[in-house]
Design goal:
Chain B: This is DUF3325 domain-containing protein. The complex is a heterodimer of chains A (528) and B (94). Chain A is α+β, with helices and mostly antiparallel strands and 528 residues long. In chain A, 59% of the residues lie in helices and 7% in strands. A 7-stranded antiparallel sheet of chain A has the order 3-2-1-4-5-6-7. In chain A, a hairpin with an 8-residue loop joins strand 1 (74-78) and strand 2. The chains are: A alpha+beta (528), B mainly alpha (94). The A-B interface holds A 172, 174-180, 192, 196-197, 199-200, 295, 331, 336, 340-341, 344-345, 347-348, 351 and B 2, 13, 16-17, 20, 22-23, 62-63, 66-67, 69-74, 76-77, 79-81, 83-85, 87-88.
Amino acid sequence: MSAGFRQSQSSLHTWSGLIVGWVLFTIFLMGTVSYWREDINRWMRPELAGAERPEQVVAGAVAYLRDKAPDAKNWFISVPGKHEAGASLFWQPRPVEGQPPRRGRRDTQALVGADGQPLHARDTRGGEFFYRFHFDLHYVPVIWARWFVGFCAMAMLVAIISGVITHKKIFKDFFTFRREKGQRTWLDGHNATAVLALPFHLMITYTGLVTLMTLYMPWAAVANYSQTDKLFDALFPSAGEVVRAEKPAPLVDLVPLMRDARARWGGREIGTIRVAEPGDAAARVTITASQTDSISVRTPSIAYSGATGRVIWQSDGAQSAAEAAGVMIGLHAGRYAPDLLRWLYFLSGIGGTVMVGSGLVLWTVKRREKLPDPIRPHFGFRLVERLNIGFVAGLPLAMTGYLWANRLLPVEMEGRADWEIHAMFLVWGAALLAGFLRPAKRAWVEQFALTGAALIALPLHDLAGGRELIGAGMAGDMRMVAMNLTLLVLGGAFLLMAQKVHRYRPKAKRARKVPKAPEAQAMLEAAE
Amino acid sequence: MTLLALLVAVAAFASLALSMEKHHQDLLKKRPLPRDRRAFRIAGWAGLVLSYALTVASWGAAMGSILWFGLLSLAAALVLLTLSRIAARPSAKR
């Protein structure tokens, strides 16, 4: 490979990585913690008891819906998985002639337990927020956010491929990580996190783009399907719309239908149940398999008559292209993954986050030595250096702030779920600001140390309340215990990083022309 | 079985590292003969194949293949961290 080509790829890598690096860091970190979405949901609603049997919860949900929305157009019940408590359900009221369909479905949803009573848990978006944020962002229209995220993911793909080309000794350096060698160490760390989990990085970036392909590249769909409805029918086959018979008929018991569906799928768990036109003779019950048991997210479904319980429709296998897309989305989200594989996903995700973060820091490390005047670096350098602090150290701090808001905000507070999110952004804003105002090195240490301490304090706070850690452990709720232990370990890791940065003294190898005032030294050492 | 697959993968990567001049010197304090290097290389690749077979045997082809990539990353990271710790020891400095 010619040196010129490699050089051009190197510049491409540097700049495609830098301009979207902060967003990528955010997407990677938020996406990585989303692998534990259900567990974060559970942790953020400590009032709920452990999981119950799905059949009982569905029976409870139907009892609740019968009472609350007997004449709804549709009921949707998500059947709780192994680690969830209660079924979350929502219903679609019958549209009234001449009135626009209602927006916002706050009052048409509920979380219901096995006894048919709504479960009372604090109002929170839980882990769903991290998951949505990693492609929808927040405070901006969703479509813009997705285009922006897609653009960044594309740049990521470019950065990965140009990075592999730039990396001169990808195999010779495969096991190389030289400690405490300044720039060398940063480069080794960046390379190692990139190369060791390269299959993951490529897969996650590519499949991430595939999840939103019909948004980014609608042309194939536009050319082949005259109406969007037809496209969706092809992508997500269903039994078609239900026409009301206008004859009342009681709804059959759903539990035998669940058993029947499970038997037909060879024991797969059930994901969602939709009841269309409940209470009418034409009522239809559509049961869809859970995404936890197959790699593809396009799961089969069966429709039953709601009056007789007979099977009226079964989805056949998806078309090969749709199935391929389903497998790719599944690979990305990892919902099928058992715990062991989830952990590997999570660790690879952390690897990717560290790769992006170290790449960002490397940009400043490489340029620091060449600065004409290290005491007053030019604006671009300072901007990158300070944004790095606000994102790489500030975002984990902000996310910890979100978890703290979940524990500290009053349970009965109005708009509580929204305020948890506002709290996260307030902490993030403060961290960004502090990154610009404090001496760089001190800002790194402070934010890492604060994140570590705050993470460790979370389980301790619960322990002091006497609730979750001990109580959950006694009740055999190992998920809760595991989450708390993970918080402790993560907190320890952040404290360790703070200590490393704090103790770091650059080796005075080269004689510098500039005398080292304390201020200048802090600047020089920063980010290393 | 999965744990065994991970251990085999770690051993395989360690063997591959030993087939490389620099790491061989760090670990065994001597220059490897070309013959040794080839032996370590073959053993390493064979180990990777074996760990794949073990993973697929207990998880099936689809899930096993995905899991195997994850195990590889973890195993290689463990070997990398161990090697860098050994190389950073004062006695190992050349």
